[in-house]
Amino acid sequence: MTLPGRPFWVIVHRWAGLTLALFLALAGLTGSLLPWFDELDAATAPAMQNAAPPRPGQAPLDPLAVRAALLARHPAARVDFVYLTREDGRADRLYATWIDPQTGLERADRPDWDDVFINPWTGEEQGHRRYGAIRQGVKNLMPFLYQLHFSLALGPWGLFAMGLAALVWTLDCFVGFYLTLPPGALGKAGFLRRWRPSWKLRYPSTGYKLTFDLHRAGGLWLWPILLVFALSSVSFNLPQVYRPALALLGGQDSEAMLEAAALPRPRWTPALDFPAAARRGAELAAQEATRRGLALPGDGRAWLWYVPSAGLYVYGVKSSADVARDGGGTRIAFDGNSGALRSVTLPTGARAADTLTTWIVALHMAQVGGIAWRIAVTLIGLGTTVLSVTGVLIWLRKRSARAGRRLKASTRAVPV
């Protein structure tokens, strides 16, 4: 058996590109803003998101005390995730759910908010929003753009559609790369000389030539990082494909571990409360760091998450195995009743497949490389949009040319 020839792959690339054009253009445009999510989000509602001590030198409240006070004011709410460290100048942000423990469903009498911002020094609730609900105004602009980016703001169906688009994009990366190679020249003398024009914009160049060169050369220069973004998008949106592939390579998915530990019924109230669980998580993290030869630098974001479906707490902390600037990728899972250690997930160093996933996700989320990489991700997002638009323009031009040739042929065939 032989592989299909170049004309077949041209057709595959054409239809894959046309199918993906809207998805990638939207993802590229919204993704160009997301490296600056925190800054832009705070700018849309500074009175809600920013905070300062009423008096110089005043000590802030403990984050767990802030959570407890919120739950005392709203007894029907659940807050199962809390950051244990803070960002300077920002309000504490808590995400509330309104679940009826008897049914496991959202309560009918829930308020129209799930995101609440609280002053760390006074405990005052500075503002609320229902995450991503653009009808509530500009304070939800960035969450709405984030939802557009990963799910078209259409919930699970949009998430699945973007996952399929990411999978097609991943495969099409290789097809597009193949089509930049000079036909019949692979492995022959002069290959690099014949391939060199594919990396360049012809000068002078206008109109169709410029569009074609932007598409081909832009795709080549961005190809490695586009593949990283495509693969990481599959990991975000299509875990039913990514997880088995990761497992084949020896990887361990922490979300899959939580799903495998699911109880017959959710354990809504564990024996360990959040303060006790925070202490136990820190203790286990220190023990595991010593045993594994890891350092815990003490900076970055530490967090605690309770998972009722599994009855487990997950404690996140920054260790020397982390690559993301905020850390928190080193995860310790332990039983919510006994405190017994259940699993340790390291972002790097334990398994090559997990290290690969950590890096592609950190690159996608602009969590490495400082401000320079954040700027680069913005430019890459805009470049992805340019590639999508130029691909459609090339198709339209060729389609018009084919229609013109058919019209001329039919005109010559008509007897005079």
Automatic annotation (TrEMBL):
Q: What is the lineage of its organism?
A: Bacteria, Pseudomonadati, Pseudomonadota, Alphaproteobacteria, Sphingomonadales
Question: Which protein, by its recorded name, is this?
Answer: PepSY-associated TM helix domain-containing protein
- What UniProt keywords are attached to this protein's entry? Membrane, Transmembrane, Transmembrane helix
Transmembrane spans: 15-37, 144-169, 175-192, 220-238, 371-396
Native organism is Novosphingobium pokkalii
Q: Does this entry carry the keyword Iron-sulfur? A: no
InterPro entries to which the protein is assigned, alphabetical: PepSY-ass_TM
